[in-house]
């Protein structure tokens, strides 16, 4: 057994030997020798990753940093400010150019450069202001203009003609300019007809109809009239014509007249023979009857050869008021003519002979339907005989109404009675105010029946 002093001496020699071992680190490598030093034998005192690769050589580094114990990058720099180390033209010192690239690495692309462009989906040359985007060159389907108000319709733009259509075609924020008119034919044609119709006057109204030489010659289609007073006459006489006339702004704002009751042209405002006409959203006033001034102040209708398959004239949301003639202050239905009223009023018209509101000759028929009590009926009309409705013949003819107002006594009643017939009976028939939409009145040459029929006092 060795002595303690010998063992202690061996430990000391081993420690001295180990202290003199060389560093096994490689050049530029990590501390592989385990002595916390690099190849110089000096300890790694700075482990901060503050060296970066500058692959594109623009002086700006990119990516993960290296510390002084890592293998140094091939192109070391002391910053990591580059945003694209593959392009020497892209770095924080570069000048931003309009190229859809973030040249100066500030997180914005082409800032304060380029041009605003607007989508032009409908191809009318005018862009949608809500679609603004900045591009360096004009992209497809874009324009520099931003004044379109409907980029889904090429007929709507600041240079379009404003039509009476319920749309703002010319983007001036005014829908349907007053006194504009549009014809939409059944063949798909759409035409601005304002000039022809707005030229009408009380002494020389513009003619609308199916005859050659009229101011507006039309057959099948729809005429749209915007707000205003129109000095026009509608005359249809060709078998098979089908015309719709719509007052877009409604009867309070859209008026058709000849001004006949105040010295204007003679004749009915509307004259229909063997054809079909629908009027909607209009007031007809000031008419003084057929061309001889005797029949149908506002509307004169004739149908020969048998009862029409459909009403010759249909009124929807129409008011006939202030018209005057001898027979049928507002309406004359001759031969087999028929008319249907829906939510329409015949009010305040005058006949100098019979039928202040309506005069029916021979087999004429009138159907009146109210879906809103305040907007349907025959009220406040006057005549020496039958203020409301008159049958001029013992032959068949009918009046059929549901929910239509016949006026209140002392307020807006027809004078002297609501309905009468030939031969004239002194007391006729009176109905009072319609109390409900289910109220019905049916009359023919034999008399009247239905809700609350009564003879007049």
- SSE-based structural type: mainly beta
| Helix count, DSSP H or I runs of 4 or more residues | 2
Biggest sheet features: 14 strands, parallel
Care to count the β-strands?
A: 35
| Average pLDDT metric | 85
Spans of at least 5 consecutive residues whose pLDDT stays below 50 are: 1-39
Q: Over the alpha carbons, how many angstroms does the gyration radius reach?
A: 46 Å
Alpha-carbon distance between the two ends: 157 Å
Molecular shape: elongated
- Helical content stands at under 10%
Proportion in β-strands: 25-35%
Keywords:
35 strands; about 30% strand; 14-stranded parallel sheet; about 450 residues; eleven-stranded mixed sheet; about 5% helix; mainly beta; disordered N terminus; single chain
């Amino acid at each position: 057994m060795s002595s303690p002093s010998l063992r202690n001496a061996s430990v000391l020699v081993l420690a001295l030997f180990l202290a003199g071992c060389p560093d096994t680190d490689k050049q530029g490598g990590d501390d592989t020798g385990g002595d916390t030093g690099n190849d110089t034998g000096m300890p790694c005192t700075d482990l901060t990753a503050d060296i970066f690769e500058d692959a594109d050589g623009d002086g700006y580094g990119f990516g993960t940093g290296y510390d002084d114990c890592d293998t140094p990058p091939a192109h070391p720099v002391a910053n990591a400010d580059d945003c694209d180390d593959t392009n020497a033209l892209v770095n924080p010192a570069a000048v931003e150019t309009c190229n859809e690239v973030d040249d100066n690495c500030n997180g914005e692309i082409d800032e304060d450069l380029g041009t605003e462009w607007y989508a032009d989906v409908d191809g009318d040359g005018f862009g949608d202001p809500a679609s603004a985007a900045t591009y360096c060159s004009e992209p497809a389907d874009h324009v520099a203009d931003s004044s379109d108000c409907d980029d889904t319709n090429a007929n709507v733009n600041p240079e379009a003609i404003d039509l009476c259509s319920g749309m703002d075609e010319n983007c001036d924020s005014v829908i349907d300019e007053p006194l504009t008119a549009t014809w939409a034919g059944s063949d798909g044609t759409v035409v601005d007809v304002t000039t022809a119709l707005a030229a009408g006057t009380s002494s020389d109204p513009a003619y609308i109809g199916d005859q050659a030489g009229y101011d507006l010659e039309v057959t099948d289609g729809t005429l749209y009239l915007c707000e205003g007073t129109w000095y026009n006459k509608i005359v249809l006489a060709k078998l098979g014509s089908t015309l719709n006339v719509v007052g877009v702004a409604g009867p309070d704002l859209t008026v058709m007249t000849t001004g006949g009751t105040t010295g204007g042209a003679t004749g009915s405002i509307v004259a229909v023979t063997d054809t079909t006409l629908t009027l909607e959203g209009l007031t007809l006033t000031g008419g003084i009857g057929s061309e001889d001034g005797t029949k149908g102040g506002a509307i004169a209708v004739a149908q020969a050869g048998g009862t029409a398959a459909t009403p010759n004239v249909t009124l929807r949301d129409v008011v006939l008021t202030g018209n005057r003639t001898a027979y049928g202050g507002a309406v004359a239905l001759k031969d087999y003519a028929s008319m249907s009223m829906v939510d329409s009023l015949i009010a305040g018209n005058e006949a100098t002979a019979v039928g202040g509101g309506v005069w029916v000759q021979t087999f004429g028929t009138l159907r009146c339907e109210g879906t809103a009590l305040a907007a349907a009926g025959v009220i406040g009309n006057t005549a020496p005989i039958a203020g409301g409705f008159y049958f001029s013949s013992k032959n068949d003819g009918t009046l059929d109404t549901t929910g239509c107002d016949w006026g209140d006594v002392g307020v807006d009643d027809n004078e002297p009675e609501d309905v009468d017939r030939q031969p004239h009976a002194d007391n006729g028939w009176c109905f009072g105010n319609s109390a409900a939409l289910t109220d019905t009145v049916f009359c023919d040459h034999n008399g009247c029946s239905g809700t609350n029929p009564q003879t007049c006092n």
